[in-house]
């Protein structure tokens, strides 16, 4: 069994005698790693938002739970932070589906501005919904004028919560928020509970994730605009970010193990190996290609992906071309961008992996596996895994896995961990040929899995890229630290020529035994997945300055 990572223990202690549905907790096997000493505020337990001090609470008392609805149909549990440190106030309660070990947090706050005006008690509560068993009641705090509620409140009785249960936050210390996918919903009465998060998320955005949730019902509709996420108003909102030595310590603690498929023909390599192995720079309108310098110093910078330049493998008449396609696992390393997110309360470590070639795709229709010719094959493939780390504690919160044009966040408690490697470092699986990242081995169909029609993403344990090994990572960007970026990172054009596929012709050729309607459906899916502007470097991806793009 994979081990869980080293982190703070999240526990939900039942109130009264009711049994807790979430019986499996995310239990750390060892202490949280220690970080190098620093004058900064990283992993100090609290963060100053400019006069509003917040702390991360990971222990809870259960208020109500259900074993129906929610993810996988196993219900959800609703808790309140407990205990709340003296002098601090809760801002809302916590919700989590029952299909995973309990692991989460909410923020509590205290006013350190000297004005005493940043927090205020609700003037009243509005009942949103009561559970059929009468044991769960969901309330909307009514904020005083000039303040915003940050999250919903749950009680075990129909009595209104105390005004001291939570505090509302002055509006200028809040930001717009939106909901993530619902933790629990009911079609019968329109009840829905969903975690709140900042609506704008990026390097420069100030919205802070408080860990609270929204509740609504048909009788009491509530929108995300009713609530506010917290806002970091500190003049130096990156003051709680890790310094470079701490970033390297985080990578030593959490850098992922990436398993390649046993039949993977196209392995990763270092960028330097790719350049030194004969990569060529092409310019539009020129018949002569230029060898790329080992450090990429002769690559044009800026200009966007305007099609004026692109990289390619060594010339077709060069025997080395086929060798370069295969990559070079011994030379492979990962390139890391460290950036503030969620108002500087978390650090995102985007771990980028380069492959000289992305292999051709395969489709599945029912029980048939259909190779798609050269569709999906392109030079220069960049994939990434993003580690989201709490700046309160240094614990790993969740991991983003890139999957073609989008990807998925996976909670740290739901990942695999490899025994014998400190137990902190998560496992990711790169799919065969396409190199999309997944948290588990097996087959993932990209398309309509109900009809058994989709692009195959096959994952299994073959060769392993140990991104935490000696000299396996390089921090290439951290704007808040002034890290000098390598020359090649500024190359904004294509890392391979744009591929043009005659999708209809290929589908009619390789899948001619299928009915016409099925071929047309498959062609539309292939066009949606594989038609684009060609591969570009990390800096040209939307997540370079913004939050990760999630698959819908």
Report on the architecture of this protein.
By secondary structure, the chain is mainly beta. The strands form 10 sheets. The chain has a 6-stranded mixed β-sheet with strand order 31-30-29-26-25-37, covered by helices on one side. Strands 1-4-5-7 form a 4-stranded mixed β-sheet, with no helix packed on it. The two termini are 30 Å apart.
SSE layout:
Blueprint: E1 11-14, E2 46-48, E3 52-57, E4 59-66, E5 76-81, E6 89-90, E7 94-97, E8 106-111, E9 119-120, E10 124-130, E11 137-142, E12 147-148, E13 153-155, E14 168-170, E15 174-175, E16 177-185, E17 192-198, E18 207-208, E19 213-216, E20 229-231, H1 244-254, E21 257-259, H2 271-276, E22 280-283, E23 290-291, E24 309-312, H3 320-325, E25 334-341, E26 346-358, E27 362-365, E28 368-371, E29 378-390, E30 396-403, E31 406-411, E32 427-430, E33 437-438, E34 442-448, E35 453-459, E36 464-466, E37 473-477, H4 503-510, H5 516-530
Parallel strand pairs: 1-4, 21-32, 25-37
Antiparallel strand pairs: 2-3, 3-8, 4-5, 5-7, 6-8, 9-14, 10-11, 11-13, 12-14, 15-20, 16-17, 17-19, 18-20, 21-36, 22-23, 22-24, 25-26, 26-29, 27-28, 27-35, 29-30, 30-31, 32-33, 34-35
């Amino acid at each position: 069994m994979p081990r869980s990572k080293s982190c703070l223990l999240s526990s939900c202690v039942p109130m009264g005698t009711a049994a807790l549905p979430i019986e499996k907790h995310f239990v750390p096997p060892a202490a949280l790693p220690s970080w190098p000493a620093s004058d900064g505020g990283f992993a100090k337990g609290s963060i100053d938002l400019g006069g509003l001090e917040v702390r991360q609470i990971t222990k809870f008392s259960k208020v109500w739970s259900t074993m129906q609805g929610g993810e996988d149909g196993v219900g959800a549990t609703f808790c309140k932070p407990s205990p709340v440190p003296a002098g601090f106030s809760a801002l809302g309660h916590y919700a989590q589906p029952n299909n995973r070990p309990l692991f989460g947090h909410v923020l509590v706050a205290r006013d350190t501005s000297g004005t005493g005006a940043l927090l205020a008690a609700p003037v009243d509560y509005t009942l949103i919904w009561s559970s059929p068993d009468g044991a769960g009641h969901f309330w909307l705090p009514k904020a005083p004028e000039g303040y915003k509620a940050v999250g919903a409140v749950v009680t075990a009785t129909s009595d209104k919560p105390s005004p001291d249960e939570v505090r509302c936050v002055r509006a200028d210390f809040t930001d717009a928020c939106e909901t993530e996918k619902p933790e629990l919903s009911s079609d019968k009465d329109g009840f829905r509970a969903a975690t709140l998060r900042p609506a704008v998320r990026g390097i420069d955005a100030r919205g802070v994730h408080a860990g609270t949730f929204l509740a609504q019902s048909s009788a009491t509709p509530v929108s995300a605009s009713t609530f506010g996420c917290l806002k970091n108003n500190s003049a130096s909102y990156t003051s709680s970010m890790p310094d470079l030595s701490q970033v390297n310590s985080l990578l030593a603690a959490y850098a992922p193990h990436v398993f390649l498929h046993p039949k993977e023909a196209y392995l990763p390599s270092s960028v330097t190996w790719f350049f030194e192995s004969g990569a060529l720079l092409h310019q539009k309108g020129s018949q002569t290609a230029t060898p790329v310098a080992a450090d990429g110093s002769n690559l044009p910078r800026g200009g966007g992906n305007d099609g004026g330049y692109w990289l390619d493998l060594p010339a077709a008449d060069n025997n080395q071309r086929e060798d370069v396609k295969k990559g070079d696992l011994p030379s492979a390393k990962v390139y890391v961008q460290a950036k503030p997110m969620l108002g500087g309360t978390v650090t995102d470590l985007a771990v980028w992996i380069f492959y000289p070639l992305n292999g051709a795709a395969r489709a599945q229709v029912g029980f048939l596996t259909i190779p798609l010719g050269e569709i999906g094959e392109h030079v220069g493939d960049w994939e990434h895994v993003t580690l989201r780390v709490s700046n309160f504690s240094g614990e790993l919160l969740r991991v983003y896995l890139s999957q073609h044009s989008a990807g998925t966040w996976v909670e740290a408690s739901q990942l695999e961990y490899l025994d014998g490697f400190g137990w902190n470092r998560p496992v990711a699986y790169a799919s065969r040929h396409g190199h999309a990242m997944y948290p588990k081995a097996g087959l993932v169909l990209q398309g309509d899995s109900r009809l058994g029609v989709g692009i195959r993403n096959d994952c299994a344990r073959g060769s392993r890229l140990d991104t935490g090994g000696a000299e396996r990572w390089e921090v290439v960007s951290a704007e808040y630290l002034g890290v000098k970026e390598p020359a090649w990172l500024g190359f904004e054009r294509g890392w391979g020529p744009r591929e043009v596929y005659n999708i209809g012709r290929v589908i009619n050729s390789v899948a001619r035994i299928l009915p016409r309607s099925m071929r047309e459906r498959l062609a539309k899916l292939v066009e949606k997945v594989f038609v684009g502007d060609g591969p570009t470097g990390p800096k040209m991806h939307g997540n370079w300055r913004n939050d990760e793009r999630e698959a819908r």
